[in-house]
Amino acid sequence: MTAEEAKRIILARHPEGMPTGEDLRIESMPLPKPAVNEMLLRVIYLSLDPYMRGRMSPARSYTKGVTPGDTMVGATIAEVMESNLAGFAPGDIVLSYSGWQTHALSDGKGVVKLDPSQAPVTTALGVLGMPGFTAYVGLLEHGRPKAGETVVVSAASGAVGQVVGQIAKIMGCRAVGIAGAEDKCRMVTEEFGFDAAVNYKEPDFRDRLKAACPSGIDIYFENVGGDVFRAVIPLLNDFARIPVCGRIAHYNDTDLPEGPDRLPQFMGLVLTKRLSVRGFIQFDHLDRMPDFRRDMAKWIREGKVHYREDIVQGIDNTVDAFRGLLTGRNRGKLIMQFANDPTK
Amino acid sequence: MTAEEAKRIILARHPEGMPTGEDLRIESMPLPKPAVNEMLLRVIYLSLDPYMRGRMSPARSYTKGVTPGDTMVGATIAEVMESNLAGFAPGDIVLSYSGWQTHALSDGKGVVKLDPSQAPVTTALGVLGMPGFTAYVGLLEHGRPKAGETVVVSAASGAVGQVVGQIAKIMGCRAVGIAGAEDKCRMVTEEFGFDAAVNYKEPDFRDRLKAACPSGIDIYFENVGGDVFRAVIPLLNDFARIPVCGRIAHYNDTDLPEGPDRLPQFMGLVLTKRLSVRGFIQFDHLDRMPDFRRDMAKWIREGKVHYREDIVQGIDNTVDAFRGLLTGRNRGKLIMQFANDPTK
């Protein structure tokens, strides 16, 4: 076979706050050997997503966390190196859930062969994958946009946010993005066609957000929490919907934030404005996956949905890139590349 | 005519915190004279409801507040004394929105004639009226109960809460009530047939609530807020629904409560547990009124829904009774009686 170097990143311990290289430790490993009914995958791309911070935590979340000592989990695009498995042959490009490592064994369960002639394979981690599907079900199922309504999305240049605003435009809504840098705001309006974008780091952010939403906010797609959420609340219209997809501003929280306690006031607004606040996880809605695949492929073909990827090279840079994701350093969907992409 | 004494209660000024007799001033008035196309009503019963605290406040709510100097608003059962209006004759018993006064003129708009042979007329203010309808739409539309689920309702012995639990039972759910006194808890289980009731004033309330909900909470019908809401949160199951109907613990709040700020943590649970939190006001759902009337009349006839009224005599006692409503002094649906009920 090959003398390739194999590496993986394990969760050495649960991080307190921002994860470090001590929490997520890189180690070399022997190149695994596939047994009968197994195949060996070489990971080309690893998706880095905010939800992964939850998997590093011992606190209850919507699914089991990673046990210290285990390899960090994550969606990957991989090339089959060796296969003892019917249906998979060396050179096949697959979507797998191989995690933060350069090589992995697989019994084929949950592995999907990709056709590189249909779309760039990285889109299976982004606009045509979990982040795109998250935007689709969150906005359509929970947001229920009607033409003419105003949709605001936070983390608007991110993997999910960029898709939310573009679907909102397709539905005839006004799309307003919130992001944390001027160039991200430009990306949101110029590349993704949002009607407006507002930088939450500007001192007059609240005024700008209000100006960008002259008819108030009908749907707030929540990715962030914190100050951004607090700025949105007073602009919500009666009957506004808040699909809660993420809260990246809080993923490193270690204590409850200082008071006053804003929960009672918020629940008061929920009542008087008849707000609908609903948390969702894309995997609860897999019945919508065929609709998503059909619609999104069509929208991309028609030039109605664009996407932007931020590809970082080398497994050694993974932890740093993930830290950057939590602080907004990436520009578009963050993807690690560990090996040459033979489809390019 | 008659030499009856006529009185009304005006909102003299916006209350700060708990309303007093200085905020809500009783005054005598001349007996009004109906003009052409008007009728004179003698108010027999006035409904007192927690939402009225909102009407006394200058803060934004879901509908216009009462202007200082004006008579306090509210639903009433009245007898027609004189009528210059086609379709209404002296002696008719009507449901009107005449407010906190003993007599009122009406042009007939929004006034509904009642048939005392069908049901006691007071039920039009309670189980067959706005509170019953609130319970019906909140639980069925927003709670979407499924047989076998656990429904928890706060202010369980109140006008809305008592109906919520009984509809939950009809839907095949486990019904658990939260109330603030031992006799209220007994009323909830013995008169209304809830499976369990828990007194939130007991020091081990949280443990008792947990014991009463061995399978967690699938629907929390929120009437109260405050400590009760905080005790419910950790028991919520994945996909739990929270119809937000009222927040009586906060209606007299003048400042934001002390920290820590619990809003971010709550939004975190909304996400990880995929909670659905939705405020509602019954008048947004009037399309369901015919269904409600049909179902509720049937349930009462079949003995599946019982109700309890707390009738206080005399307009001079109205402000005190309303203060009692905000502190939980009433037992069942609170109704003021200002005149003899000729249907009894």
Explain what you see.
- The structure is a homodimer of 344-residue chains.
- The first copy, chain A, has two domains: 151 residues, Quinone Oxidoreductase, Chain A, domain 1 (Alpha-Beta Complex); 172 residues, Rossmann fold, CATH 3.40.50.
- In chain A, 25% of the residues lie in helices and 24% in strands.
- In chain A, strand 14, helix 9 and strand 15 form a beta-alpha-beta unit.
- Chain A contains nine helices and 15 strands.
- In chain A, helix 2 packs across helix 3 and helix 2 crosses helix 8.
- In chain A, 48% of the residues are buried.
- At the A-B interface, helix 7 and strand 13 of A face helix 7 and strand 13 of B.
List the topology elements:
Two copies of one chain form a homodimer.
Chain A: E1 6-11, E2 24-29, E3 39-47, H1 51-55, E4 76-83, E5 93-96, E6 103-106, E7 112-113, H2 130-143, E8 150-154, H3 161-170, E9 174-179, H4 182-191, E10 196-199, H5 205-212, E11 217-221, H6 226-232, E12 236-244, H7 263-272, E13 276-279, H8 289-301, E14 309-313, H9 318-327, E15 333-337
Parallel strand pairs in A: 8-9, 8-11, 9-10, 11-12, 12-13, 14-15
Antiparallel strand pairs in A: 1-2, 3-4, 3-6, 3-15, 4-5, 5-7
Helix pairs in contact in A: 2-3, 2-8
Task: Give me some keywords for this one.
about 350 residues; Quinone Oxidoreductase, Chain A, domain 1; Rossmann fold; 15 strands; 2 domains; alpha/beta; seven-stranded mixed β-sheet
